[in-house]
Amino acid sequence: DTEVTQTPKHLVMGMTNKKSLKCEQHMGHRAMYWYKQKAKKPPELMFVYSYEKLSINESVPSRFSPECPNSSLLNLHLHALQPEDSALYLCASSQGPSYSYEQYFGPGTRLTVT
Amino acid sequence: DQQVKQNSPSLSVQEGRISILNCDYTNSMFDYFLWYKKYPAEGPTFLISISSIKDKNEDGRFTVFLNKSAKHLSLHIVPSQPGDSAVYFCAASQPNTGNQFYFGTGTSLTVIP
User: Fold this and answer.
1) Which of A12, A50, B23, B76 meets the CB 3.0–4.6 Å disulfide criterion with A55?
2) A42 vs B: CB within 8 A
3) Whose CA is closest to B106, among B57, B40, B32, B52?
4) How far is CA A92 from the centre of its chain?
5) Of B34, B99, B103, the CB nearest to A43
6) Can you say how many angstroms the Cα of residue A39 is from the centroid of all Cα atoms in its chain?
7) Does A57 touch chain B (CB under 8 A)?
8) Rounded-to-integer distance, Cα B75 and Cα B19, Å
């Protein structure tokens, strides 16, 4: 089973709202990732968790706050977003924190900020 | 600075023929390369990978070729099928940068029945 699940599938939120994106994998993977993808652009790495610890934060604004409650779950908490944050947010996981492990992606959450 | 480039935004191929998708990179430290396929409204799906110690890796209809001296890789799909119509991203990674993948801008493949 190489499935990464993400909820919700779609999310519309105002600039003053607080919401959370959720990601789950049951492959025993020990590295998990958040990416942001705009239309016709490649995925951009936001955060990496290795063994439930934040290992990479790609200078992401503080209105995005990641959380890894356990090895299977990854959350992205959203607060005071801007319309330009509207994008597809992808979660991925890999076997471990090595550059040579392929990453498996979830279907994404389509976020619209109004 | 885009370290991984896919210079063809789109490609159309007749069903049954070969599809060749190309990818160039600038960073000579890249050591591992992957291809992903993405359908609309879905996340990228891993297709095939290759380590820099190899120059070819094959998996069914998909073959990836790596030319390190030219900093070029390509994905061959033979025979192409209509279900292969999707956006294809190449990605690269290197040691000592954590797990960061560098993605190309994608090539939209259309296989015409």
Assistant:
1) A50
2) yes
3) B40
4) 7
5) B103
6) 17
7) no
8) 8
CB within 8 Å: A100 and B100: no
In the chain, the amino acid numbered A30 is R
Of A42, A91, A110, the CB nearest to B103: A42
The structure tokens listed for B79 are: 């025979």
Q: What is the pLDDT of residues B8-56, one digit of tens each?
A: 999 999 999 999 999 999 999 999 999 999 998 788 999 999 999 999 9
Cβ of residue B34 closer than 8 Å to a chain A Cβ: yes
The neighbour count for residue A74, using CB atoms within 10 Å, is 27
Contacts of B94 in chain A (CB under 8 A): 99
Whether the Cβ atoms of residue A94 and residue A103 lie closer than 8 Å to each other: yes
Number of A:B CB contacts under 8 A?
72
Residues B68-101 have pLDDT tens digits of 999 999 999 999 999 999 999 999 999 877 778 9
The whole-angstrom distance between A94's CA and the closest CA on chain B is: 9
> By percentage, how much of chain A surpasses pLDDT 70?
98
Residue for token pair 């159309």:
B12
Backbone angles phi, psi at A84, to 5 degrees: -70, -5
Within an 8 Å CB–CB cutoff, is residue A30 touching chain B? no
